[in-house]
Amino acid sequence: MTEKPKFAMYWAAACGGCEIAVLNIHEKILDVDANFDVVFWPVAMDAKYKDVEAMEDGSILLTLFNGGIRNSENEHIAKLLRQKSKILVAFGSCANEGCIPGLANFTQVQELVDTAFSTITTDNPDQVRPITSLEMPEGTIQIPTLLPILKTLDQVVDVDYYMPGCPPESHQIAAVIDLVIQVLQGKAELPPKGAVIGAGASTVCDDCKRTRNVKKITEFGRIQLKHADPELCLLEQGIPCNGPATRQGCGALCPSAGAQCIGCYGPAQGVIDYGARLSSAFASVIDSKEPQEIERILDGLVDPAGQFYRFNLAGSLLKASLPTVRSTVK
Amino acid sequence: MTNANFEPVIIGFTCNWCSYRAADMAGTARMKYAPNVRLIRLMCSGRLDPTFIFKALSGGADGVLISGCHPGDCHYIDQNYKALRRFHLTRRVLIQMGMEPGRLKLLWASASEGAIFAAEINKFVEEIRQLGPLNWKIPGELTDIPTQKSQVEVPA
Asked: What number is the ipTM of this complex?
């Protein structure tokens, strides 16, 4: 029997939802097992970093890397897996654009650590903080230290393919796995390097079944405070829906279920800065020509930066808030 | 961070029909104004994608000037109102991200207002000089985990 190609999956700064999404492909997971030798997948099997370090360079055919790069351990493993893998896929929103962990880029490291160890509700009377390096009789022991901001995978290493989504939809994962298996059998070809896989090119609006007319917004409002028309475009009703800038791939799940798109599939093709595209889309359709009136309407958007960069801050042009950037300058 | 020797870099977006002509007017009339603004001509201020603003700030600009025809005068009927609305929303986003609001300026200038254009640029350059360099650049080095609690109480 010939040796099966090797498969790895890793989580860096992530929640674990991507792994769940992979397991959600149900019996298709048996195809993965039939076609691949799973060599490294911390959430599913026991393997040590030193096992990976001992592998030959480029010996893993396919690595799905999910999670952002928040600390020195994430960075080390990202570089290690890049070295050992032929195909490295930025899998899921965190690896692509920072996602929810990337929202920490609004905040300086000092504040992050204070929030974790020194809030009123935290029982930490001695103000104990992590020590990254400690001398012991057996030698120095270390834990990873933080990067000043969370980075996306391609800000640290070269990435072959991007698979967006928080998490990627299971039917998209199944389709990608099918494709890779077909490539292995010589029945299909891989897409060009740098391609976005497991998603469409256009926007969520293209998949959304709601009726769209000319948009003229006189008031923004939060969805929980409004009685939204179930048939009509949400943005048209003044509900901040991120569909116009978000890549299609989910089948417009949220708008179909009566909730606004929050943008988990990241920027659509051709969108350089997700938040900028949404600023443009939202501002253009405000129905006013008077500065004061425009300001009043914009007051309805309570948290524009959070609305526009919920998933995309680390992957945006500005990458982090200005105080965060300034705090990192020594 | 005030620095008298600091020369700000400002990216200015002008529209083809009014504000670029105003700059042209200032030039042909030999009016002197601060050389810190790099003007980029768009066909209309309505062409200004907020991406341009973020790109300028992340690429080293200390301030961004958006200028177009006066309200009601747009060559393309009402596109400068789009620029106005985008300016208001983009400024809100940038304020939330910690930027001083004074680094983003909106200026209406007609083709005959070369003197006003030059004077406003001089004023804007001085304002940015007072604010100091922006430096929206991300260093990549690892940082130490703070061992001391900060003085400011963090709400739970």
From this structure: 0.93
